[in-house]
């Protein structure tokens, strides 16, 4: 469970690639209202990526892409949305008939210490209290989540692989073990570079299952079990806000040297509920051998793997008195050296999932036969598609401008 499974493999067989539709739709489509916009910093005008955009009064949501852009679709009339990001004031926007190409500016939230009850005790004890309160802070009955999943790979600055899809995720009560928690692919597609020089491609094993495996509040064995916590030292950092709710911030770092790689990171804990609301984790890659054992499953013969980064972001959202998982992102960076080559080649792989909707009504577990296995690669489970209405009314993370151009290039190479 603790190992992030990354597989390198040599692409030996050419494939036939079909074009994909990437246009952005605005306006109303039948009973579906569609809006789009960009979220940026109020003072610097810099785009804010991974900002949460939620339809007020519903569970429908998306996140902004690396350009701060989003498209949001909702059935019926869409009256108001809320936009939030860690360290900013939440902004609520009334939606009118001309609410397209919105430019939403978020104001940084400066937390005044006289408004905050500062934790003066042991930060490790604060983490322990947050763990003990998990049964009351998270769902106590099964829920079915719908999410959008994407994984990409880059060689130097160029995309060589894109795969994305809509998935269903069943999560049982947080007071029970997660043996029945599963993910199923609803629909998906992939694009792969046919360029002869892009002979090394990347598979991420178990990508769509990450929200189950890396849910620190549900799967304590991943990070927050008692044995793991002994390996870390904890310090308090300046408080911040998420969705206008004040947060304690606990930083962690390796306490001593172990035979395996440890993490650096931050845990965000809601001041009122003491629920975990965000986790930022970065694997210590200073020891190349330890990091490689953690990250790599297998590689082609003759290739040297040099790990550079493995970071994980886990976001939760407070709603109706409970905290729900909402977004997860993994980033891998590494170099590969080939025999008889003077310079190493840099690679990066990213996978992310955003929860776009959820329900607790008439929820049934996903059968094992229909579920996605942690040993599976998303690449092997989806095909190439050419369908101008592929995403229909599903909410997705819009491709960034650079990714959009990369998709266009990948398609043209097959024409």
Count of DSSP E strands? 20
Beta percentage is: 35-45%
Structural class given helices, strands, pairing? mainly beta
Largest sheet: 10 strands, antiparallel
N-end to C-end Cα span: 42 Å
Report the principal-axis shape.
Answer: globular
Radius of gyration: 21 Å
Poorly predicted runs are: 11-29
User: What spatial order of strands do you see in the largest sheet?
Assistant: 12-11-10-20-19-18-17-16-15-14
Helix content: 10-25%
Query: What is the average per-residue confidence, as pLDDT, rounded to a whole number?
Result: 86
The helix/strand order is: EEEEEEEEEHHEEEEHHEEEEHEEEHH
Note the total helix count.
7
Please provide a written account of the structure.
11% of the residues lie in helices and 42% in strands. With 415 residues, the chain is mainly β. A hairpin with a 2-residue loop joins strand 10 (143-155) and strand 11 (158-171). It is globular.
